[in-house]
Design a protein that fits this description.
Blueprint: H1 2-21, H2 29-45, E1 51-52, E2 58-59, H3 68-80, H4 86-93, H5 97-108
């Protein structure tokens, strides 16, 4: 059963990453892409006490109000593989350096 769950998770992660890497429509530009990235983060990091169940039960930290430099370095570490949480690695892989900087500034300012 765990093999089936792993295959489902991997398939979902691949589909999510592929979707996240798609370019925003030309008429919406980078603002639309950043709105999508903000919503992607808040889906887990904006829920007080949220926990994921893969690969083990993991408490998801709140990121609003964190230092922008910390957030930027964390995203870079996930993208490079230095940090290894599977979901975050997939998400960070879809972000450009500029996306990471904008997200770090946004959430470093309290996410408002």
């Amino acid at each position: 059963m765990s093999g089936l769950l792993l295959r489902i998770f991997i398939g979902t992660a691949i589909a999510f990453t592929a979707h996240a890497q798609q370019k925003a429509p030309a008429d919406k530009g980078s603002e639309h892409r950043m709105d999508d990235a903000i919503r992607m983060c808040i889906g887990c990091h904006g829920i007080p006490g949220y926990k994921t169940a893969f690969p083990t039960v993991y408490h998801v930290p709140k990121i609003a109000g964190q230092q922008p430099g910390y957030l930027l370095n964390a995203l870079k570490a996930y993208k490079s593989g230095e940090r290894s949480h599977p979901s975050m690695r997939g998400i960070a892989a879809s972000l450009t350096e500029e996306d990471m900087k904008e997200l770090a500034e946004y959430y470093g300012g309290g996410g408002k």
